[in-house]
Amino acid sequence: xxxxxxxxxxxxxxxxxxxxxxxxxxxxxxxxxxxxxxxxxxxxxxxxxxxxxxxxxxxxxxxxxxxxxxxxxxxxxxx
Length: 79
Fold this sequence. Notes:
With 79 residues, this protein is of the alpha+beta class. Helices cover 13% and strands 30% of the residues. The chain has a 3-stranded antiparallel sheet, with no helix packed on it. It is globular, with a radius of gyration of 15 Å.
């Protein structure tokens, strides 16, 4: 049996299939009295989502609750 979050996380990732990354940036958030740097990926969503704005963005978080910025860790997926 897989972890309960697996299906939820897979659905989020499946929503990104076919989209194009059109921008990347680091957002500085100082609302908590200190600076947190959040990696952000911006996708051109016009390819799949016709009833929304033409762009969507995902922040890389340390967890699903958004308790802090995360790290986009590259994986070796070579055959």
